[in-house]
Structure formats: structure tokens, C-alpha cells
Design goal:
Elements: H1 4-20, E1 30-32, H2 38-44, E2 49-53, H3 56-60, H4 65-73, E3 77-81, H5 90-103, E4 107-112, H6 114-128, E5 139-140, E6 149-154, E7 166-171, E8 176-181, E9 189-191, H7 202-221, H8 227-249, H9 254-274, H10 278-290, H11 294-309, H12 311-323, H13 333-350, H14 365-376, H15 388-398
Parallel strand pairs: 1-9, 2-3, 2-4, 4-6, 5-8, 6-9
Antiparallel strand pairs: 7-8
Helix pairs in contact: 5-6, 7-8, 7-9, 7-11, 8-9, 10-11, 10-14, 11-13, 12-13, 14-15
């Protein structure tokens, strides 16, 4: 970062936030054994009407049918919003919110990938803050009121949204994607059921798995880690290195699916406390501008930034590499860190993940870099600070080169 005063401001902001970590109201959702635990839980809490937030593909696969049937058997009304798109929009949130109000719902069920969970959490924020539009919730601590009871059921092992305080929403009008971060957005309950993830296509398994790895890595190499977040990132990285190739190769491998759900959850717990970094800032800008899937963007971008950080991340990245079984105790920090980056690139190639983002247009880079800069600085405690001009060079590296396949 070229401006020393701005750099000092960013580091001061991050230091204050890190010092405040022990007193902030972080929590983890209560974990339920399976979908069958949801109806009696709601009944016990006196909930007679719920909103189910999902997407058409998840519902079309019949993944929500058992839950809808069980709710009906218990006499619990279930309104459904299945219009969530891969990068959930303000319109999605407002449509689902209206469905909640029309149904007189008392709780929210989110069944799907990160998009459905983020949409559901933003709906909760709008219920809690009926007079505050989504655009004004961008950033941190803009909700500050209890949201309705929320149960998250991830159908992918990637975002960890079932454990985080973030909801990432896209503003299509301005081609801008941004996070809403506040403690009430952490779901009250989470269901980690590997059977739900068995039908995931291999490429979705790959990109969501690398999304979880990105969360673990960015939280770990940042400057706001705690004993808990380091342990959670290490567990996530170890599980992903061991089980992602298996889940990709055999979607019916329940042991691998269970391990990947656990990895995504651990990474979610880690980054919701220690935050992420520029990989996410750039990925969100690509999602807002072109609709690039978040997991795919993270998978492509992660090794580029790790190489850009260089020595600033080697020490921590080498520790994570050793915890994940990718380096031995005798290896030096530089070799271990570079070995981790090499594993990421090799895993991406093996799973058909490209090295570039072909949608990127040179004329859009300044705007996207500005959005990434605004999102990331001063909030994300990255190993090496970068400004808009420096981020623009990253987009250029991510562009598909002429003549490349």
C-alpha cells in the first residue's frame, strides 16, 4: 500500500478489532443430527409457521421434500421461497421477506448452498430492521437486533455460512456484491447431514471445497487469529487435503462427504472471527460484475494472492501446510509454504478448475478493484496491505491470456 497514513489507519483499525475479539458476542449454532430433528424443535418452541428459503435446483432434486412433508405432518405451515439465484440479490431478499410476512412466519429455514443461507440471513436482517434497506446494511454491525429463529441446512461443503455472521448480497443495478456482517446473523441451529450432499456434481464439489480451503487459509494467515481460529483452520485444511479428492472422485463416499461438511463448518467458525482477505474482496467484485460463482472465483484467485503475499505469509502458511500433512517438520518455511501453493494449483488442475477468469474485461478492472479495496480495507487483516492500483494488477494476472486454452 503506497499511502503510509492509510496503511497505518488500516493496521490500527485491525489491531483494535483483534483486541476486542474476546469480548465480542461470537457464538456457534447448535448442531442438529438431521432434518428429522427440525419439526419437533420448532414444535417445542411454539412455532406454527415457517419460511423455507432455498433454490429451484435444490427443491427440484427433492432435497426439501422430506422436510416439507414432516412439517406438514406436525401441523406446521411452510411457505417456500425457491427463487434464490447463485449470487443472491436484493430482489431475492425482498421477495422472500414478503413471503415471510404474508405467511405470518415465525422462523426461517435455509436449505441449500451459501446463496440460500445468505439470502435467508439477509431476510432475517430485514425482518429485524424493517425500515432499513439492504444497501444500508452493508458493512459491519448494521443490524444490531435479534433476527427470527434461523436453521441452516447446507447442501454443499464450502461456504460455512451455517456458522458465520456474514450474508453476501448482490446489487445487480450497480453490479456490486458486498457482505453484511453482524452477530445476529449467525444461525441458531445447523444441520450437517452428509446424505444431503451426495448428489452434488463433481465440479461443484471441487469449487465449494476449495472455497472452504480459502476460508481456512485466509483466516489463518491474517493478523487477527486466536487459539480457536487457528485450531479450526488447521482441522479444516487437514480434512480438505485428505477428503476433497475422495469426495470429488466418488460423490457417494459418505465418509468424505461428512468430513467435508465438518471442514466447511470449521473454516466458517474460523473466518467469522478472524475474517478473510483480498481473495474474497476480489471474488465478490467478480460475482457482482459478472456473476462468477464464489467458490470458483476463490479457487482460482487463492494461489495468485498467496504468491503475491510472498514472505509476508510464508511463516503462517508453512504451519498450516504442516498441520495439513503437506510438509514435514524439517522443511523450511519458504519451501513448506510454496509446497502448499503448489498443492492448491495441482488440486485445481486435477479437478478441472481453470487458472484464469475469462469473463474479466480490462475496462472493468478499475471499478472492480475499487470495490475490492473498499470492502477489504481496513476490515480484512491481510498479511500484506494493497491498494486499488496494486489490486488492479491481480485482476490482470487473472485475465485469460490471448492464445491460452
Amino acid at each position: 500500500m503506497r499511502n503510509p497514513l492509510r496503511a497505518a489507519y488500516c493496521r490500527t483499525f485491525q489491531t483494535v478489532f483483534r483486541l476486542a475479539l474476546p469480548i465480542l458476542p461470537y457464538r456457534e449454532p447448535v448442531q442438529l443430527d438431521g432434518l428429522e430433528a427440525i419439526p419437533p424443535l420448532l414444535e417445542g418452541k411454539g412455532v406454527r409457521s415457517v419460511l423455507l428459503v432455498t433454490d429451484r435446483s435444490v427443491r427440484g432434486l427433492g432435497l426439501t421434500a422430506p422436510l416439507e412433508g414432516a412439517l406438514k405432518d406436525r401441523g406446521i405451515a411452510c411457505a417456500v421461497y425457491d427463487g434464490t439465484v447463485p449470487n443472491p440479490t436484493i430482489q431475492n431478499v425482498e421477495e422472500a421477506r414478503q413471503r415471510y410476512l404474508d405467511a405470518g412466519a415465525q422462523a426461517i429455514l435455509a436449505v441449500g448452498g451459501g446463496s440460500a443461507m445468505d439470502c435467508a440471513k439477509a431476510v432475517g436482517a430485514r425482518i429485524a430492521r424493517p425500515r432499513k434497506p439492504v444497501r444500508r446494511m452493508r458493512g459491519i454491525l448494521k443490524v444490531l437486533r435479534p433476527t427470527p429463529l434461523t436453521i441452516a441446512v447446507p447442501t454443499t461443503a464450502g461456504t460455512g455460512s451455517e456458522a458465520t455472521l456474514a450474508a453476501v448480497i448482490t446489487d445487480p443495478e450497480h453490479k456490486y456484491k458486498y457482505p453484511i456482517n453482524d452477530f445476529p446473523l449467525i444461525p441458531d441451529y445447523a444441520v450437517l447431514d452428509p446424505a444431503i450432499t451426495v448428489g452434488l456434481p463433481p465440479f461443484v464439489t471441487a469449487t465449494t471445497g476449495m472455497d472452504a480451503l480459502t476460508h481456512a487459509v485466509e483466516a489463518y494467515i491474517g493478523r487477527s487469529t486466536t487459539k480457536l481460529t487457528r485450531a479450526m483452520s488447521e482441522e479444516a485444511a487437514r480434512l480438505i487435503v485428505e477428503y476433497l479428492p475422495r469426495a470429488y472422485a466418488d460423490g457417494g463416499d459418505l465418509e468424505a462427504r461428512r468430513a467435508m461438511l465438518r471442514a466447511a463448518y470449521c473454516a466458517g467458525v474460523s473466518f467469522t472471527r478472524s475474517y478473510v482477505g483480498y481473495v474474497h474482496g476480489v471474488a465478490h467484485s467478480l460475482g457482482g460484475q459478472y456473476g462468477v460463482a464464489h467458490g470458483l472465483a476463490n479457487a482460482v484467485i487463492l494461489p495468485v494472492f498467496l504468491e503475491e503475499y510472498g514472505p509476508a505469509c510464508w511463516k503462517k502458511l508453512s504451519r498450516l501446510a504442516r498441520a495439513a500433512g503437506l510438509a514435514g517438520a524439517e522443511e523450511g518455511d519458504e519451501a513448506a509454504a510454496k509446497g502448499f501453493i503448489a498443492w492448491i494449483r495441482a488440486a485445481n488442475r486435477a479437478m478441472g478448475i481453470p487458472e484464469t477468469i475469462p469473463e474479466i474485461q480490462a475496462g472493468d478492472i478499475p471499478t472492480m478493484a475499487r470495490h475490492a479495496d473498499q470492502e477489504s480495507n481496513p476490515l480484512y487483516p491481510v498479511p500484506k496491505l494493497m491498494d486499488q492500483r496494486e489490486l488492479e494488477k491481480i485482476y490482470q494476472k487473472l485475465m485469460k491470456k490471448e492464445g491460452s486454452q
